Amino acid sequence: MVSIEVRGAYVDFPIFDAKTRSLKKQVLGKVGGKIGTEAKVPIIEALRDITLSLREGDRVGLVGHNGAGKSTLLRLLSGIYEPTRGSAHVVGRIAPVFDLGVGLDPEVSGHENILIRGLFLGMGRKQMEKKVDDIAEFTELGDYLHLPLRTYSAGMRVRLALGVVTTIDPEILILDEGLGAIDSAFLAKARERLVDLAQRSGLLVFALHADELLMELCTTALWMDEGRIRKHGPLSEVLAAYKGRL
Ligand SMILES: Nc1ncnc2c1ncn2[C@@H]1O[C@H](COP(=O)(O)OP(=O)(O)OP(=O)(O)O)[C@@H](O)[C@H]1O
């Protein structure tokens, strides 16, 4: 049974090369986490007092302003960041998908990248070999799949990465935005696969700025505001409250 249990978690980033004095004079804007200036070294308080309990079947969309802490929370859940204080326990195999096109190898072909990316996301080699043709067809990259990835445009790389991601069977899927580079016709085509993926993921946590996709993929939402959870509940309620605030 997969689960995520976070208790009173904080994530701080000390900034060793920033000048505290100039920061004190600055009027704080609406973007980003809180910058603490009491200590000798300025500290960005990216996550503050996060308590969260997720179970199998939960599909959570993260919303919030730029710098609210969405990506930091996803990295905490993926085990990439340890909490500075508090705890974060995850039971289940995580497939973390941050920036879709990152982590691909520019020197090998699209075909080989499909295999490598699948293995990285926890699939077996045999399983991936069976899926390669289907992924190749979905990407519509044709002969480009035989060329090194460095010859691809940003959108072509995301097509390939998205093709792989939507074929895996994750226990826990952590997905950060990264669909911006693909054209709208391809996104419409990818939609069905993303919905399928969301439905077969044991637990899904997804950060995305596009409401429409959130509505299709998630059941609940979590509104992050200056590093804290402002509201967690049914998707439509949280989105309405977040929009009202904007
Ligand atoms: N590696 C880092 N070093 C220092 N500060 C960081 C680092 N990563 C994030 N931050 C800070 O933590 C805060 C939260 O950032 P985060 O990337 O989690 O926000 P976000 O909600 O994902 O934003 P966006 O919607 O713009 O992607 C911001 O104030 C940011 O400046």
TrEMBL record:
Residues 23-246 form the ABC transporter domain. It comes from the Bacteria. GO terms for molecular function: ABC-type transporter activity; ATP binding; ATP hydrolysis activity. The keyword Transport applies. InterPro entries: AAA+_ATPase (IPR003593), ABC_transporter-like_ATP-bd (IPR003439), ABC_transporter-like_CS (IPR017871), ABC_transpr_TagH-like (IPR015860), Bact_Polysacc_Export_ATP-bd (IPR050683), P-loop_NTPase (IPR027417). Keywords: ATP-binding, Nucleotide-binding, Transport. One of its GO terms (cellular component) is membrane. The keyword Nucleotide-binding applies. Belongs to the ABC transporter superfamily. PANTHER family: TEICHOIC ACIDS EXPORT ATP-BINDING PROTEIN TAGH (PTHR46743:SF2). This is ABC transporter ATP-binding protein. It comes from Amycolatopsis regifaucium.
